[in-house]
Amino acid sequence: MSDKELLIPASQTDSVAINAQTRRGRIQMLLLLLACATPVIASYLAYYVIKPDWGKTNFGTLVYPAQEFNSAWLDVPLQGKWTLLIARPAGECQIKDEKCIEAFFLMRQVKVAMGRENKRVQLLWINTDGKPVDPEVAKAYDEQVAGFKIVALPRDPKLKTDFEAWLNKEGGGQQIQLIDPSPAKMMYFPVTNSPKEFAFIKKDLEKLLKLNHKGEKL
């Protein structure tokens, strides 16, 4: 035994040992509680923070309830067909504008991917600034070549305001919007150049065409 240990009363030596044991016991207890609580914490984060969509099978964002389309808004019939709609200003949508061209290309490819069912789908570009369409864009994405119908916004101020409110509702204004044959907006998709996401959009539309013929006029 060292001189220092001889100077420490026996009662204090016992107290120090007891305190050390108590600390070790508390640490072990905390580790045990943490191990038991980890699954609970993980499930809490998964449900309240990550918020998975249990049972979700669609890639596109469902619009519920569907948002009815007013046929007076645009000079093109939407009733009776499935319509993929995009809104872009012609003044900015030049052939070198990758973001705009990506949207058109994606829509065209989705329509083509429907195979024999592609006639049930029409493509609609809303020219939001009314400026002339770039001739190169028109050549690549007109109705004869790619199936796009290009229309302007309503001229009537009240109809224009109502249409823009409908178009941009729930932040969908820059997305590719799917209008059902009733007609009403029922889903929208992001503009993407990802092959995987293209496959998801294709799958969503194929499923809808297969399960729902109601109100169609081919």
TrEMBL record:
This is Cytochrome C oxidase subunit I. The chain crosses the membrane at residues 30-50. Keywords: Membrane, Transmembrane, Transmembrane helix. The lineage of its organism: Bacteria, Pseudomonadati, Pseudomonadota, Betaproteobacteria, Burkholderiales. It comes from Polynucleobacter campilacus.
